[in-house]
Amino acid sequence: MTTKRRTFLRVSGAATVAASTGMASILASGRAPVYAQAKTVHWLKWVDFVPATDQMFRRELMPEAEKALGIKMNLETVNGNDLQPRITAGIQSGAGADLIMSFNSFTHLYANSVVDLSDIAEEVGKREGGHYAYAKAICSDGKAYMGMPWAVIGGMIAYRKSWFAEVGVTKFPETWEEYREAGKKLKAKGRPLGQTLGHTFGDAPGFTYPYLWSWGGKEVEADGKTVVINSKATVDSVKFMQGFWKDAHDEGGLAWDDTNNNRAFLSQTISATLNGASIYIESLRRADQYKTEKGEHLNKDILHAPLPKGPAGQFGFHLLQSNMLMKYSKNQDAAKAFLKWLHTEANYEKFFLSQKGFATPTTAKWEAHKLWNEDPVMTPYKVAARLGQAIGHSGPPNAKAQEVLSKYIITDMYAKAVQGMAAEEAVKWAEAELKKVYV
Amino acid sequence: MVALATSSAGGKRPAPRARLLEDERWLAFALLVPTAILLGLFIAYPFVKGVILSLTSARVGVEGEFVGLKNFVKIWNDGIFHVTVWNTFWYTGVTTVFKLALGLWLALLLNRHFRGKAFIRAFILLPFIIPTVLSTFAWKWMFDPTFSVINWTLYQLGFITQRINWLGDPDLAMTSIIIINVWRGVPFFAISLLAGLQTISPELNEAAAIDGARPWQRFWHVTWPLLLPVTMVVVLFSVIQTFADFQLVYVMTGGGPANATHLFATYAYQLGIGTGLLAEGAAISLAMFPFLFLIVVVQLLYIRRVEVR
């Protein structure tokens, strides 16, 4: 007898029903049910900046998941900038990957189109000492978890130990004034600080938001409506930035994307830059290719430090990744089972170890992991997720805050000012733009 | 006559469908149907959908409701949109003038006889053939703030002492993308105009030369008027494409620094995809339509006038 299309649909439909009711018992039995082989979970994530991780996923974790859960895994990786068009296309057409990696507030942006993951998130949180406030603010709206917190790609300043020492700075500057002084001396020696103020998703807002907060500036009140960017604190921060830029920065930074500062640092044209750990990791990976002017390995001359303090404190804004389970997915149970499996400690640890500190987990327990003691250069990233603050501060990191982010209003405020616009004017411009968003 | 009538009556009658197709009107209709379906599916439907979208409050994953012209009012008052409009006109205007001038010049040169003509003509098309994203990435490296080969060359030759901040300075960033667009667009102009030039009978030019016309006069009074219809069509195509350009700016600057290079398409993308505001993105895309429509109407009318003359 040949299987007709209709018969097949009926049978596999029955399998879906069985799976949706009996997943717990299947998991408990620990054996893969035969019929579920047909189920494929499609996971779309970014191309990891640490290539070893994606390799490990493909060679180890995905086959293991297939075996343990009796599903088929389809892991697809795309450039981080391409996630949003894919999510949009998926939601609008009602078809696409089951699980999609979210950057920051995408979770709030697509809240209507995702499945609540509170059960998994709360279970993992309970087991691992709780999710950081930063992860909770971004992944949850207080009622539901729109994404399962995955990891934080910490942004820290990577700097050249010996070059800072040559201008008399042996401990990384703690305040913006000290940092500017050091940068001034370094720029005079042809080794400026490097920072992007361009339209790029990671390093630009990763600097401008914490910088603004550290001066006491903020875009909106906690009500998420009252725009308060036009304050003395903001104007002060912009004025300081104008001098800071001229004194200490590589002025090409206005056009940099997320990769330019990596290249500039590795080719030794800048002395410090805010970045994920990718510069250091690359210098380790190809140690012999990157040598200092004295012929030593560059990786021995790199240290990391958080952004300096301002009058109002010290902040960070890091790339927080989570995984969203799409409402249109026809494999929600299998996808959920996979997520649950992926977040068991033994499996998550494999990911964590492969990252070597590039990704910081979003629960407190991992701070105690021995990985952080293996390489002191990476230790500062341990607390990246703890120090993080979400966009839209003091309002919620919702769709409006995301609009401000993706319109680069805060970044452009500083970019305009360093290009010659008066500080007050630049702030006024930002205020007018923000008011159009927060209506 | 009689025989014919008998044979058609006595023979097997053709199936009705075949007879239907013998009617030219029906045949024409049948032949046009595939094109109409394609145009309907891929042009009319997205366009109508875009119009409907722009009149709602739709966001990604949220249907939204009818809000009339609210989105258009919002973008009308949007400072970034104003910058975008100005950028798009400036970008289209400047590039079109340069592409036309350089393309025409190149076409006139290529229209002469020289060795390796075919090879050179094929070679000229390269910028046009290479996928835009690929060539733009190469340009991105050439304008790189740190590693620009252009800066390096100028520095080595002693023309500059400091790096030129190609993509970081608002005016230079615009200039840079204009240069790339001209580089990419000139071959299209050159080859199309060359095709136009080749339809002009050389006898006309020879006759003018015998009558004592100088080269410039021959160009201005003989070649140019005859080339004008082709030129107008080429300019029309180019204006439409340049006006709606996306890839080049997206790859080079993402619309930065501080929105200095945003065009309609990049800003619509930023709002529609980056922020999930589908309706506003659609409104910005549609804001292009009246401008383009006007340009098309004016040029088509002009072409018709030239042809009638």
Shape descriptor of chain B reads: flat
Low-confidence blocks of residues of chain B: 1-10
Using the coordinates above, name the CATH class of the largest domain in chain B. Mainly Alpha
> What distance lies between the first and last C-alpha atoms of chain B, to the nearest angstrom?
48 Å
Rg of chain B computed from alpha carbons, rounded to a whole number of angstroms: 26 Å
Instruction: Give the uncertain stretches of chain A in residue-range form.
Output: 7-22
Task: List descriptors.
heterodimer, A: 439 residues, D-Maltodextrin-Binding Protein, domain 2, 2 domains, six-stranded mixed beta sheet, 19 helices, B: 309 residues, mainly alpha, MetI-like fold, 15 helices, 75% helix
Your description of this structure?
The complex is a heterodimer of chains A (439) and B (309). With 439 residues, chain A is an alpha/beta fold. Chain A folds into two domains: 26-146 and 320-372, 3-Layer(aba) Sandwich (D-Maltodextrin-Binding Protein, domain 2); 156-318 and 388-437, 3-Layer(aba) Sandwich (D-Maltodextrin-Binding Protein, domain 2). Chain A contains 19 helices and ten strands. A six-stranded mixed β-sheet of chain A has the order 2-1-3-9-4-10, with helices on both faces. In chain A, strands 6-7-5-8 form a four-stranded mixed β-sheet. In chain A, strand 1 (40-46), helix 2 (51-69) and strand 2 form a beta-alpha-beta unit. The radius of gyration of chain A is 23 Å and the shape is globular. Chain A starts with a helix and ends with a helix. The model of chain A is unreliable at 7-22 (pLDDT under 50). Chain B is mostly helical. Chain B folds into two domains: 16-54, no CATH class; 78-262 and 289-308, MetI-like fold, CATH 1.10.3720.10. Chain B is 75% helix and 0% strand. Chain B has 15 helices and no strands. Chain B has helices at 2-10, 16-22, 24-54, 70-76, 79-110, 117-124, 126-129, 132-142, 149-156, 170-198, 202-210, 215-243, 247-252, 264-274, 278-308. In chain B, helix 11 (202-210) packs antiparallel against helix 12. The longest helix of chain B is centred in the first third of the chain and has 32 residues, at 79-110.
